[in-house]
User: Fold this.
Amino acid sequence: MLSALVSLLSIEIGIDPEIGKLGGLLLTWHGVFVAVAIAVGVYVAVQIGQRKGFTEDDAYTVALVGVPAGIIGARVLFVAENWDLFDDAPLDIFRINEGGISIYGAIIGGVLGSWVYGIWRGLPIGKGLDAAVFGLILGMAIGRLGCLVAGDTLASSSSLPWAVEYTHVNSANFGLSPQHPAVAYEMLGDLLIFGLLFVLWRVYRKDGLIFFSCLSLYSLMRFGLNFLREDSKAIAGGDLDVMQMVALGVLIFSVLGFVYYWRKPAAQAEPTPEAPPAEAPARRS
Assistant:
């Protein structure tokens, strides 16, 4: 009786996570939302980058480096954490279109790739990080819509009226009791952080602080939300899981980065990137 009442009060999601096949490629809602997230994230980051003085060409070039680096990082961290899923079929590692990525892997890979490229090109790193993080956090929020629809994130059971129950047979959570919509909580948190970044933009007077503030806030949020999730392996002998330990590591890195840019003397502030000089119009003969 009680289980029937809980099921009645929950939100049912009966969408097939698989859209269909295009040739030999399986299209999923998760993949579609990831693609939309990348497109929107890059667009927003480029717009913010231009407001901070980057040329459109430089902004898009950094994105062309950061996006694939982020995708690789997202898959690598997911595979590392869930190697048992690929032990018998290692070639499935490359089936990224069917889902299976780590948000933290995307952050670490994307930032690292863009950072290395920015250093190589001599671009102002702090300004670039501040611009990129607007697109990053918004893209993460959009990507979580794909996880919510696909039902590929396992959370603890819940009797709350907004608990979700997946009723399509292709869903990874099909047949399970209603659970916390943990990815929806994270999506809302991402959007709140995204809005807060515009406030910080007005407050901070030094480069790099927006990026590390965002990373700190996200890490704190993710650390707390993972107490509701059951799809990350627990650390042996402890109450924390792998992603919570990653969150703590990223938080420490973020605090150190924030302190570094906060204490950076104004005389060493990064210059605004200069646009290439315009070519003089050709004279008529």
